[in-house]
Design a protein that fits this description.
Elements: H1 9-20, E1 25-26, H2 33-36, E2 49-51, H3 56-69, E3 72-76, E4 94-98, E5 105-109, E6 114-118, H4 123-132, E7 135-136, H5 149-155, H6 162-165, H7 168-171, E8 172-178, E9 184-186, H8 200-204, E10 213-220, E11 222-223, E12 227-235, H9 238-252, E13 256-263, H10 264-273, E14 287-295, H11 301-316, E15 321-324, H12 328-346, E16 351-352, E17 355-357, H13 363-377, E18 382-388, E19 393-399, H14 406-410, H15 413-426, H16 442-448, H17 451-464
Parallel strand pairs: 2-4, 3-4
Antiparallel strand pairs: 1-2, 5-6, 6-10, 7-11, 8-9, 8-10, 12-14, 12-15, 13-14, 13-18, 16-19, 17-19, 18-19
Helix pairs in contact: 1-3, 9-11, 10-12, 13-15
The protein binds flavin-adenine dinucleotide.
Flavin-adenine dinucleotide (FAD) binds near residues 99 and 157.
Length: about 475
């Protein structure tokens, strides 16, 4: 429980104004509205104020003042998360800590292939800073023009390059974190090797702000690719796509950086609603693959091995049709389709979305056995399945039958959650592989996470944040 405090809310807000300046403390309800809702409008919050520190020292001062006053803290980055993780829960006495002014790239070090960025840096700006140094920062997803790296760390974001470069956890070498008591955990040394006990950095990645406020990160960079080969394939079976991917990875020494699965329904939605989308092939099949191989240097091997492997697929029937982009621009038109699917889906009525992960060798069987269960439950339902096949992470989204009442469809949310998540559990997968748990999936976490793991998570939370001041009511289910 938070300690009782002698400060009332007005005095506390005055204290915050003294710490960061009155213009950086927003407490007017109307002015706070952008920070109080998440993009889908599933959660609406209330807070005493939104506070916008300029640097780590101000974050420390705010956290200490809040701990003394018993006020909880909700860290917020770009507010692109869709699970209510960055939305303050009305019943709590809390502030939103907006990190957007901590937006400096502190250093870029091409010699060690690393970069140190403050938590409020927009992910796309970090990509650009890396590109300016002829390096690649590979974290890339459809919201990277708004999401901040602190939020990406909070949710352990992945995206389209995970297959080759890993998710955020694999891209972070060290963190600077303000702990719930105001202590600073400072490890921005960027060491590749450090075997001095527990890996504390990893605790804060994917913690959704429940253990501390990330203020800066040392991030890994890579050689910038100088060649990019993008292909669009029509296939009949997911299993054929997986075999092709495994072959290409083997043949190219791991040069496949993207492998996106797109169902016929997803393609149809994008073509119908997204400006500038054109079908890359005339062939109609159940599934499509967007493949990308990237490499450095100028050898022709990657291009010819892709061509050869596709040719053998066409010959033995595992690939129905294929086109290799003739230039970067054409490749981008393929990606434009993939990136427009979520937006296109909104025009088709209500959606019940699942961001799940499966062991890749069980993914095809998962889809083949789950889709009939959905149709049994609701004839006419339109599964809109797409995602990062290469790392087993699927958007398993369900669109309402055409013409059905949207509210009636959304009222069946928990029925469909149960079908999909039970299947995920059966096939050894994860119910959350992208957006995190936030407020939305706490109940599901209680159901599917092992009691031993949950208990350990609770013990870690209690040890680091005994007053439960950091983003309370998120991630951990009620006991
Ligand atoms: C269109 C779209 C496409 C997406 N595609 C993908 C995808 O392909 N792969 C994928 O993995 N994800 C994807 N996502 C999810 C995405 O990874 C997250 O939305 C994003 O990383 C969150 O960043 P943010 O700055 O908006 O964080 P917010 O939404 O502001 O916060 C998210 C969580 O992190 C915490 N947090 C924020 N900043 C900090 C900080 N400095 N310290 C501690 N905790 C903090 C918050 O309290 C909250 O719990 C997508 C999201 C959208 C909207």
């Amino acid at each position: 429980m938070p300690p009782s405090t002698s400060l009332n809310s007005v005095q506390f807000l005055q204290q915050l104004c003294n710490l960061v300046g009155a213009d950086q403390v927003v407490s007017n309800t109307a002015a706070m509205s952008d920070w109080m809702t998440e993009p889908r409008g599933l959660f609406t919050g209330e807070a005493l104020a939104v506070v916008r520190p300029a640097d780590t020292a101000e974050v420390i001062a705010i956290v200490k003042a809040s701990a003394t006053a018993g006020v909880s803290i909700v860290p917020q980055g770009g507010n692109t998360g869709l699970c209510g993780g960055a939305t303050p829960i009305p019943k709590n006495r809390s502030i939103v800590l907006s990190l957007s002014r901590l937006n400096q790239i502190r250093s870029v070090n091409p010699a060690t292939n690393s970069l140190t960025a403050e938590a409020g840096c927009i992910v796309a700006n970090i990509q650009q800073a890396a590109a300016d140094a002829e390096r690649l920062f590979p974290l890339s997803f459809a919201a990277d023009g708004t999401a901040q790296v602190g939020g990406a760390i909070g949710t352990n974001a992945g995206g389209t390059n995970v297959l080759r470069y890993g998710n955020t956890r694999e891209l972070v070498r060290g963190l600077e974190v303000v702990l719930p008591n105001g202590d600073l955990l400072d490890d921005l040394r960027g060491l590749r090797k450090d075997n001095t006990g527990y890996n504390l950095t990893h605790l804060f990645i994917g913690a959704e702000g429940t253990l501390g406020v990330v203020t800066a990160a040392n991030l890994k960079l890579f050689a910038a690719p100088s060649q990019r080969h993008t292909a669009w394939l029509a296939i009949n079976r997911i299993a054929d796509g997986i075999d092709l991917l495994i072959d290409l990875q083997q043949l190219s020494g791991g040069a496949v950086s993207g492998c996106e699965l797109i169902s016929a329904t997803s393609l149809e939605f994008a073509l119908r609603h997204q400006l500038g989308c054109r079908a890359p092939l005339e062939t109609d099949t159940s599934w499509y693959l967007l493949l990308e191989l990237t490499g450095t240097g100028h050898n022709q091997a990657l291009a010819s091995l892709l061509e050869n492997r596709l040719a053998s697929g066409l010959e033995n029937g595992t690939v129905v049709d294929a086109v290799i982009a003739q230039n970067l621009q054409q490749g981008e038109t393929f990606w434009h389709i993939r990136e427009g699917i979520s937006e296109a889906q909104k025009h088709e009525g209500g959606s019940i979305k699942h961001d799940i992960a499966l062991p890749i060798h069980r993914l095809a069987e998962f889809v083949d056995t789950t889709v009939p269960l959905l149709h049994q439950q609701m004839p006419g339902i339109r599964p809109c399945i797409f995602g990062h096949l290469g790392d087993g992470n699927l958007h398993f989204n369900l669109t309402q039958p055409a013409g059905m009442d949207k509210a009636e469809f959304l009222g069946r949310w928990s029925t469909f959650n149960r079908i999909v998540h039970d299947q995920v559990e059966k096939f050894g997968g994860s119910i959350s592989a992208e957006h995190g748990i936030g407020q939305l999936k706490r109940g599901e976490l209680a159901r599917y996470k092992s009691p031993v793991a949950l208990n350990l998570m609770r013990q870690i939370k209690q040890a680091i944040d005994p007053q439960n001041l950091m983003n309370p009511g998120k991630v951990l289910p009620d006991e």
